[in-house]
Amino acid sequence: MKGVEKARLALEDMRVGADSFPETFLRLAMSDARLPEPELQLRLDPDDPWSPSADLGYRRFRIAVQYDGAPHLTREQQTRDNRRDEAFTNAGWSYFKANADDLAEGFSGLIVRIKRAKLRTRGHLRPMLGGNMGRK
Questions:
Q1: Among 9, 46, 11, 14, which residue's Cα sits nearest to residue 27?
Q2: CA gap 69, 71 in Å, rounded
Q3: Where would I find the beta strands (DSSP E) of the chain?
Q4: Beta 53-58 vs 63-67: how paired, if at all?
Q5: Other residues' Cβ atoms within 10 Å of the Cβ of residue 130
C-alpha cells in the first residue's frame, strides 16, 4: 500500500507543461517557498502562438523564469534564447535564468530573487499589451 500512497501524493504535484525534471524541481521549490503556483510555458503574449515563452512565471507580476540545461549550449539555441530573453526584458518583465548550479543549491538564491521581484511589482505594474495579458 505504501507505493500506492506515494503515487497518489506524486499525482497531486504533477503538472502538464514542464519540459524537464529541473523545471519540475524548480516549480516544486517555488511552491515549498510559499510562492504562488507559476504558469508553465508562459507566453509573453498569450494570444500569439508564436510569441516567445519562458519555462514558468507569473504574468500578474511580470516575472519569467527559464531553466537552461545542456540543450541550451548550442550556438543556434543560444541565439533563440537571446532573442527570447530580450523580448521579455524589453517588455519590462523581471527575467531570471537558472542552471545546474541553481539546481544544486535547491534554487534557494533564485527564489530569494524571485520573491524580491514579486514584492517590487506589487501595485506598480503598468498596463500590458495584448488581449488578456493583464488577466489571469
A1: 14
A2: 6
A3: 39-43, 53-58, 63-67, 94-98
A4: antiparallel
A5: 14
- CA angle 111/135/48 to nearest 5° reads 90
- Please state, in angstroms and rounded to a whole number, the distance separating the CA atoms of residues 87 and 93: 9
Q: Are 68 and 22 in contact (CB under 8 A)?
A: no
Q: What is the pLDDT of residue 41?
A: 92
Question: What's the rounded Cα separation, in Å, for the pair 80 and 58?
Answer: 22
Of 67, 61, 62, the residue nearest 17 (C-alpha)? 67
Q: State how far the Cα of 47 lies from the Cα of 132, in Å rounded to an integer.
A: 8
Q: Are 44 and 59 in contact (CB under 8 A)?
A: no
26-49: pLDDT as tens digits: 999 999 999 999 999 999 999 999
**What pTM does this model have?**
0.76
pLDDT tens-digit readout, 50-85: 999 999 999 999 999 999 876 667 788 888 889 999
